[in-house]
Amino acid sequence: MTKSRIIQEDIREIANELKEVASRLNNKTVFISGGAGFLGRYLVATLDYLNRNVLVHPCKVIVADTFISGQRDAIPKSEHISLLQQDVSKPFRIDGKIDFILHAASIASPIFYNKFRMETIDVGVLGTRNLLDLAREKNVESFLFFSSSEVYGNPDLAHIPTKEDYNGNVSCIGPRACYDEPKRIGETLCMTYAEIHNLPVKIVRPFNIFGPGMRLDDGRVVSNFVVSAMKGEKIPIYGDGLNTRTFCYISDAITAFFLVLFSDQNREVFNVGSDEQELSMKHFADIVIGLVQNDKARAHLVEGANVMYQQNVDPQRRCPDLTKIRTKLGYRPKISLISGLRRFIIWAREETERQSHGYGPQKACRICANPALLPIVSLGESPLANNLLTADNKNIAEFYPLEMVYCPTCHLCQLSYVAPPEKMFKHYVYVTSTTETFKHHFHELAHTLIEQFNLNKKSLVVDIGSNDGLLLNYLRESGVRIIGIEPAENIVEIARKNGIDTICDFFTESTVNDIFRIKGKADVITANNVFAHINNIKDVVKNVKLLLKDNGVFCIEVQYLLDTIQKLTFDNIYHEHLSYYSLLALDEFFKRNDMEIFYVQQVASHGGSLRVYVHHKGAIHTIQPIVAEIIARERQAGLDRYETYQSFAQEVYAIRTRFKNFINAVRSQGKRIVGYGAPAKATTFLNFCGIDKNSIEYIIEDNALKHGMIVPGVNIPIVSREHLERDRPDYIAVLAWNFADEIMRNNEQQKKRGIKFVLPHPEPKIL
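RE: above sequence
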């Protein structure tokens, strides 16, 4: 989050405002729930800045979040910050001391809290009680509860500006109640614990906080208006547009929160916001249009506004009385609405530009656009798996969040963060033809395509992500016309040297038009172990439909999610693999794009894959019963239930523990261990387990392109098999486990020398 210049400036301003009280944090531990949300991220970033620039003894920061609406990548990377994926409404334990607790966890956006009503209620009620119990256990110095101005409901006009002692005009059964009522109950719990247990509790009620770092899709008024204006669209104003608000810029609010936290004002409630002139929504829209300077933007009263914005539901006026926090704590909002909006617009433009390139944190499912993705397993910050390093650049690995999430709508599992594709695929060291296993695999596929679809000398096969052309070479030997598409320049060079006609590019509309102009439409288009790499799969399928003959076949191979879940092959998760497919998800996707799956095979590659055959909707191929059979099997296995993936995550963390224990036991006995195979999965596995060159001395690799290189993140050198002839380790961990049989056949002599080969997971096993 703090990479933004605007946000960095905000954080510096907050830290400057807190310099007189920041010493309270020296050598302390701060627990923040909801630390990946809008407010929480600023809280964490401020503490990170104070650690690096102000504090003599840095504070430890524990961040807890479920990531239902929060964003993991927003958390600064620091040895003093630990990230806990935890629903605080569920029982949990924290070892060690805690000095300050900030309970900021909530789902504040109407879009999200109406999708997750029970979760919103639970975090406000059960979560608050759990954290108050934690505060009692740890004997904290201060506990700050983030309530909301929504507790006032729709205030009587006599109570505008609204003081803290106003009891509210509220509805406990209205459309906002799932958010509002837990805040009120949370305040009740805080005061009850304060009175009964003498806890140092404070409460803040934020009023319309805005600024950089807000989700642009969260449906709140500032983000809604600004995004619509930037696009030159109608700005949606719900209701009559006469309801009024004041707005508070984020840096002012964060300063206020810390002032309350560090104060001696226990059992007190403070409004936090701005009391600058109230603006009607119509007037506010005009201001936004003027600042964005897009002549196409227009304010628009939405007819039949949804129930959230009906006159008797949406507060008509909202403005805080700040007398209490001004007099007791010296709070003074400094950033005017216009200045804050200018800063927000600059950031929003930068953020929109980044999102337009498709990388960074993902806001929604790439199949169905559902924004409410559920976390499965986090493998931490991990380097790009295939971007091996040299001795000269071993210290410049780039790390990105590696987290799998689940879409409950279409059942697609996918990564929550997309790394820049040009960094992943422009220089690649994965080559298909280096193993006998894949030579046999693609020879069989070529034969199947020729036999099943009557390919001949007039037929054209286009291979997306063709690598070094192994599949195309087998097709060419049978006289089939071929062309490959591969973005990795070094791999394209290898393919062309082997006589494989290859275009060095991604599968774009321009590329498709070039192929069509020169060679005509394709009988078969293949995408083997690359479909999962593609972020914009809708555009790719659109291009497939343009290039494919009316009765042509699109054949893809993807690692099979069911095998990943059941065999616990979590190391197949890495940045290049953006999606993890079940037939359930693929069937949904192709139907949405006017194509149909008519046949499917399970194949053994990569620990278990699906080979899926697709045609234009209504094409001649008969849909085989196996399609429905496998979908039914997946439902029976629970691939349409979130609980299945939660269990998978627990097993993954257990695998890490078991392998680290094995490594420690081996090393404690004075034994040596090396690795065999440096595929992408090895990078994931080693970085997740924290196994570096001090534990595994080197890795043997059969792919000559990788010799002399270094596994990123853990800095383990990669050597040729000849190195093993000059050395005798005690154990070899088979990291390329999908080639274990081939590795064992090729290393019988090493077994005879007494070297023990070990499969690392699901639990260490001597082969």
